[in-house]
Each structure stands twice: as structure tokens, then as C-alpha cells.
Amino acid sequence: MKRFIGLLERLQFSPFNRDLPSDLAEYMASESSDDIAWTLLLLSGSQLGELLPLRQLRQWVLAETQLPEWLYQECLERVQNPAECLSLLTDLIKPSAGTESSLALNEWIEVILPFRQWTAQNQLNQLKIWWSALSLAELTLVHQLLTGQFNARVSKRTIELALSKAYDDEGRKGLAARVLAIRTRLGESVPMTQLELWTCPKIPSS
Amino acid sequence: MHESTDRHMPHDPKLIAFTRTGLHCPQGGFHIDPSRAVDIALITHAHSDHARPGSKRYLCAQDSAGLVRERLGPSIKLEAIPYGQTIELGATRVSFHSAGHILGSAQVRIEHEGRVWVASGDYKRDFDPSCAPFEVVPCDTFITEATFGLPIYRWRACADEARDIYDWWQTNARQGRTSLLYGYALGKAQRILAELAPLVEEGEGDHRIFVSDSVESLNHHYREAGIRLAACELLGRDTHGVNARGSLIIAPPGLAGSGLMSRIGSDFETGFASGWMRVGRTRQGRRYDRSFVISDHADWPSLLRTVRETGARQVFVMHGENDTLARYLSGSMGLDARPIEELRA
């Protein structure tokens, strides 16, 4: 997931004149097709659904950090992004700076997807482990995915250019198959996107 | 230790008033970091929002004297006082104590009729190889800064951030790309150079560092104070014919888009070293290739720890999140804490 986070930093925060399609194509050249499929789904607007309500996450973080609600609101006004704000606050109870997980993006998502089915106690126990172990960037991403607040986007044009740099027609078809396989397995939990049309025009989008 | 439960303190006259000119001590007849010219100005450190020209007489910590003269000119009437040495001003006894913010930065301790007030100036608690560490000064009333007075601000060790800067620079250098790192010219630049010194001396690769005029003009004060900075060369307005490709360039943010940019070619990445970069929204607005969260101010845990360690029963908060930090210190730590505006004369 470290490379995905690096890509997100690049896409969201780097100067406007950077060549984002090339950055995305370079990422595609070195990641597994499962990670690339997930990356494209997320960057084109898909969510995993609300696996954990934001208000529940907020309640647990404030209880763990012993911070009052009004102070959270002050922080949120500065940060604007609730999932990131809660990650920043859990840093207060982290014994060290945390480390990057060795799991790939698709492996992380496999860990996160069943979260909704867990008991509340198991959810909280797992969150406490992540709060103490993960780096800030990684925890922010996990919070965003859990609460359905992932909001990094790239334009359709950027994705199209990156795909044309990284794939030939056969490669696009292979990637489209991966995307569809993920969607089929997840059923309704991943909303429809136009991704299939970009990756393989011959496959219908619904 | 003086203890007051009366919010209006009728029997505890203020040692400091918050005036339009800044912090004023009527019993001592002096101001601290005044915003306008006054008779006697105590300067906590040499940043331009604290050290301003025009006053008749200046006093500062001895380690700060060179920097204050650099900023305010050689002709000012300046008295440099060693940390911890007490002097008498009016009816008060005053001393400077290290604040750990930049070289020579100081808190001001004021004693009058058995009561002690301390004005922190800007400070931090984290290790910094370029200045003396913060000294906890017990007091009855503590005036704390609160630049980063929200719990979202907590700093990693600066050495870890410096390692990230070094790795970023060396990755760029291997590709023939220049690394342009922005940071404040006084304090931040020297702290980074001091943190990079051992990495540059131990590692291998392109270790050329260039700095702007404004950084170089302040570096020698650090070297004279015995601070070990990484070797660097000047890349100034009048420097010509220098090939900076693959090097690290440290310059203040104001130089973005200046003539300096035109002389380093087109293949470079930009970075910014600041505590503000901890928040994604800020990184999104500023648009640098890399952000390094390095601050010379106290983070949230350090603010709380410092207030606690001074033993102060009364706290005033300034320079930032005045209302927020005061409310938290009152509501969650049981202190008599208020925003500095309540010290208005």
C-alpha cells in the first residue's frame, strides 16, 4: 500500500504542472493487476460502502483520546476531512510514528471488506491495533475506506492517457477482466463506474 | 507558589498587560517583542515578527545578540544578557531562559514582590541540534504561545524528517534532478542543515548543498556559536555559472518564482518544510512535490506538558489558538487559563 499512498500524494498535492498520466502509468507498470484494478476503481469514484459509520469511528476515537467533542469540531474546521482529522487525533495515543504496512493495496482491501460483519468489540480491537501501528498516511486511507469517505479523484482524461501509455489492447482487456471480476465478487458493494468503457469498450457497462 | 482562585485577582496586580504595542510590564517599564518603537524592548528572538526596529534600548539573550543585530542593524543600543542572569529593570528582576525555538531564543522571567510571571515567546520541546533546549521555569503565571494549539499537531522526530529529506534529495540527484527545499531562512534552514550534517558526512553521493543569500547571511551566526551545519555554498542573486543540477537548494518560500528558479533548469522537484504541512488541506493548497513536517514551535502534547511543568496556576495564551487552548486548559486540566486578550490594559 506504500506505493498507492505515494501515488495519492503525487496526484493530490504535487504542483499542477506535473505529468500525472505518466506518474499513473509508471505506477501501473510496477504494480500487480489486482492493485491496479482497485486503484482505478477508487480513483474513478468507487467506494467500498460504509463499512463503519463515521459517527461510530468518531465516538471511539474521542473516547480513546479523551478529547471533548467541541475540540474535535475545532480540529475538523482546520482539517475539513473527517477521516483524516480522526487519524491525526489518534496520533496522540500512538507510542511511535508507526510503520508502513507490508500489505499490498488489494490485500488491505481484503482485510477491510468484511469489517461490517464483525462485532463492535472486534471492530474496536482491530482499530486500536491499527491506531498504534500504522503510519499517519496509511491510517488516513484506512479510515477513509472504512467510512466511505475516500475522496481522491483523477480525471477521466488522466486515466485514459495513463492507460494508453501503460497498456496495449490486450493489456486493457486483461485489466478490464480484473475490474469486472472484482465487481462481480463484490456484487452491489462497489457502484457502477465508467471504467469498463475506458479499459475495454467491447464489454458493456451494465 | 502563588495561588489565585479569584478570576479578577483584585489583590494580584498584573505584571504584564496586553497592549496595542504588545506585552507591557508597567512595574519594569519595558515591553516584550513590541510591535512599535518603545523605550525598552526585550526581544525573545530574532524573527521579524518579534524583533522590530526603532526602539531606544534593546535587551536580549546573549546567544541571540548577533542575529538581532543582523536583523535590526549594528547601530541599535543592545544589551546581551546570558541565560539565567538576573538584571533589574524598574521594580522588577528579569532574566532570559532558553526557549528552544531558534538560536538564542528566550523566555522572559519577571519577578516582582515575590510573584513570578514568565512569557514564553515562541518555543519548542523537541531536540534541535541548532539551539539550546527549552528550560522549564517555574512560575505563578505563564504566558504561552499556541501557534499549533490544536491536537491534530504532533511532530515526528526531526531527525526522521531530515532522513526523509536526505533520501528525497539523493533519489532526485541520482536522476540528475535538483531538489529545491523551501523553509524559513532563520531557524528552519539552519536546523535542517544541522540535522543533515551527519548524513552528508556519512553517506555517499552528490552532497552539494546551496543556500540563498538570506540563509547564508544567518548561517555564520550559527557557526560562530559552535553549531555544526552541513557544508553549503551560496547560490545568490549575484552567483553565476554554477551548475546546481542534482544538488539540494535551501531557500525561503518567498523565492518561489524568483530569479533563482530560472538558474536551476527545468528538472527539479520542490519541497516545503513546515508544521503546517501536516494537514492534507494545506498540502493541497500549497502544491509542493514533497512536504516535510518540521516545526520550531511546540506541538499540542508539548504545549500541555510545558504548561503543566511550569506549575503555573494561571495561564494566558497568545500567538495562535488562543481561545481553543485556553478553553481546553480550563475545562480539561482545571487551570485558570484565558486568551491573552483578557490581559488587555
- What separation lies between the terminal Cα atoms of chain B? 25 Å
Please tally the helical runs of chain B, counting DSSP H or I stretches of 4 or more residues.
Answer: 8
Class from helix and strand fractions of chain A: mainly alpha
**How would you spell out the order of helices and strands of chain A?**
HHHHHHHHHHHH
Report what the structure shows:
- The complex is a heterodimer of chains A (206) and B (345).
- With 206 residues, chain A is mostly helical.
- Chain A is built from 12 helices and no strands.
- Chain A is 65% helix and 0% strand.
- In chain A, helix 3 packs across helix 11.
- Chain A is globular.
- The model of chain A is unreliable at 201-206 (pLDDT under 50).
- Chain B is built from 8 helices and 19 strands.
- With 345 residues, chain B is an alpha/beta fold.
- In chain B, 51% of the residues are buried.
- The longest helix of chain B has 17 residues, at 158-174.
- The model of chain B is unreliable at 1-11 (pLDDT under 50).
- The interface between A and B is medium-sized, with 27 and 28 residues.
Any chance you could write out the topology, listing elements then pairs?
The complex is a heterodimer of chains A (206) and B (345).
Chain A: H1 2-13, H2 20-30, H3 33-43, H4 54-65, H5 69-79, H6 82-90, H7 105-112, H8 120-133, H9 136-147, H10 156-166, H11 169-186, H12 195-199
Chain B: E1 17-19, E2 22-25, E3 30-32, E4 40-43, E5 57-61, H1 65-72, E6 78-81, E7 87-89, E8 92-98, E9 106-112, E10 115-119, E11 141-145, H2 158-174, E12 178-182, H3 188-202, E13 209-211, H4 213-224, E14 233-234, E15 248-251, H5 259-262, E16 268-273, H6 280-286, E17 290-292, H7 300-310, E18 314-318, H8 322-333, E19 336-339
Parallel strand pairs in B: 3-4, 4-5, 5-6, 10-11, 11-18, 12-15, 12-16, 13-14, 13-15, 16-17, 18-19
Antiparallel strand pairs in B: 1-2, 2-3, 7-8, 8-9, 9-10
